[in-house]
Here is the input.
Amino acid sequence: MSMFCYQCQETAGGKGCTVRGVCGKNEEVAKLQDLLIYTLKGISQIVVKGKIDVKKIDETNYEVLSSLFMTITNANFDEGSIEKQIMKMIAIRDKLSSSVSSADLHDAATFKVTSRESMLEKAASIGVLATANEDVRSLREMITYGLKGIAAYAEHAKNIGKEDLEINAFIYEALAATLDDSLTADDLVALTLKTGEHGVKVMALLDEANTSRFGNPEITEVNIGVRKNPAILISGHDLTDLEQLLEQTKGTGVDVYTHSEMLPAHYYPAFKKYDNFAGNYGNAWWKQLDEFVSFHGPILFTTNCIVPPRSEEVRGRIFTTGSTGYPGCKHIVADENGKKDFSEIIALAKTLPAPDEIETGSIVGGFAHNQVIALADKVVDAVKSGAIKKFFVMAGCDGRMKSRGYYTEFAEKLPKDTVILTAGCAKYRYNKLKLGDIGGIPRVLDAGQCNDSYSLAVIALKLKEVFGLDDINKLPIAFNIAWYEQKAVIVLLALLYLGVKNIHLGPTLPGFLSPNVANVLVEKFGIAGVGTVDDDIELFMNA
Ligand code: SF4
Ligand code: SF3
Here is the structure.
């Protein structure tokens, strides 16, 4: 076996990618990512054992977040930048370790590598399968994937100047715990829930960062057609990158369109003042292979999901920044003040044709907590009168598997007196269907990006309060979540921490769940997979 990765929903055969990732990740990238995570575990052990004050290691805190983010599915395919990051983290590690006796440290905190070759050799013995017990392995990995999601959201918040060092401290504690052979499966289950608790914290932090900087999302109609100007497509989740791009393209005659998870940026008041912020082009991440061809202009990736491009022509138009990377694509780094120079992208855009029209019309979104709570009276009345029978939280990710057609069919077949609450790129499976409204409340309410699943939890907690219930599970809300990458893992763990039961998770259950760990999730939390659309709707409506 040359590599092993089972962190995402599309893992080969539902069990693990062993030759090459279904995502396109090659053996070298997979191994280097394993080694990067291993190095972070070593750093974490040093921080925990050395009782190092996280307030005093700002650079380490940030670089740990970035490193975790680099290993999220579809974020970084560039061997060179992962290799550089490993060297950087080893240097940070060795500086920190002077305060701890090396006799107390794990190999992850002391190993040495000098070249790409020695890294690959080392990686062969420290990957996921190095943990022999499949239940311990399953829990260690679930915690690690949750931490990747936490890191991604914490990095976005930090880019806006907000941080909560308690979250960084928890990342060290949890990563160090994955090296600790004395912990039992029960200890690790408890740590998994604690990871969920920090998932709630980090999503709240990012929500606070985004809304304090860009305003509260509001109901917005987003154009999905095109204009006649040359244009740049921006994808991923980082709103500070978008803000800088809009500032730099202002008045240049170059339009900016969002792709996939950047769509919800249109809901923020701060971005409405840019006349060149033209609309959303296309659909969820996996459709980029065709959509980037017809877009014609440059594409800027601020985070995942990158799909390896089919042609050199498209590759030549892709730029990466932040934790993303792709071999042969220009990577834009921030200066010491966080400023990024996008002039090369703008200059390239001016030489290229305007996008081809692939759709026309508009879609509506912007139903984050503040907006929905402003409509609370209307929503509560609709529930009390029986006009709305049930809400369906269908947040999460989209993906390429045919079986995800389930979510489109599910949305279409849901009774007309139900409302879908969504967030994340899962929405593209049904956000362009004509599902109508209930007394002016659209039947699909999009809160935003995957991290805005936090908004859906806030809305649920508010409804619980309004209806005077003592348990979130007594609300007329069902959870039918679609997952793909590790941010969805932290969203799921956050919901479990909040006490949400009977979540259905699809289109398939994670390959990283061992049978025993899957049983714990079923018994303790009522987690289930998905069945047929008709059976599931009947089950949910009668629950
Ligand atoms: Fe396979 Fe997913 Fe890992 Fe890519 S991220 S190698 S598709 S399990
Ligand atoms: Fe999508 Fe990649 Fe997860 Fe942020 S962009 S939800 S998959």
Notes: The chain has a mean pLDDT of 97. Residues 60 and 441 are 46 Å apart (CA to CA).
